[in-house]
Amino acid sequence: MEFNQFSQLVNRKKQTIVSIMLISLVLVLVASILSPIKYGAQSRILVMQEGVTSDAYTLSRTNEYLGNLFSQIIYSSSFFDLVMDNDNYQIDNNYFSGQQTERIKKWRNSINTRTYSDSGIIEINVYHQQPQQAQQIALSINSTLTSYSHKYSGNENIKINVIDQPLVSERPVKPNIPYIIAITILGSFILALIFIYIFPEEKYDIRLFTAKAKKSKKNIDQIIEEEEEESEEAKRLNEYYRNLEKNREDDVSGDMDNIIK
Description:
Blueprint: H1 3-12, H2 14-34, E1 39-49, H3 56-73, H4 77-84, H5 100-110, E2 111-115, E3 121-128, H6 131-153, E4 158-168, H7 177-198, H8 210-260
Antiparallel strand pairs: 1-3, 1-4, 2-3
Helix pairs in contact: 2-7, 3-6, 4-6
């Protein structure tokens, strides 16, 4: 299908495209509203290796490796157990109840890590329905990383410093409604274009505004019917005047005949 043909197809299928986008948006928003709201606690740590060479390239590669390593360690089940067993912080273990696989799945859905290229800085985000719990978990993560860094790296020269203590959001950060709306609109628009490309036939049209379309069709039919009635009335009037004129001519002709006689 050429571009011009596809453009014409899009123009014909506007209502189908809009319908798919609206349906997708409503479904996603309903799912987002029904999902529990969560607050976020964000902190940053710096991973360093003492005694490493001053060569800039080697240092950047080392920082990049250590940052990626510890950002993935946080998701592990062993690290999760250490965080939960930290008695220095008041973490509600019931939140991560269930089988071990369920607990780990919920744990991984509750955290998000991000590394800053080769700087050795790791950003740690914790999400929880209660802001205080998000803060306590974030503090326990930072404490566990600081205390057990050598256990995971196998290097006693690894040092972890907390450069930003956990900062708790004042408002819920999940679900992120503006982001969800933007992604849904873009994704549903692409989906709609694919749909009309695969199913260009009219029988696959999706119309959410059929009532309005029927109403418009009804109005058009009514107008046509009224015009036809007016046309019939005009025909009858024309026939009447023709007959009247003919009768008048006949009367005049009869009078002339009588005068001649």
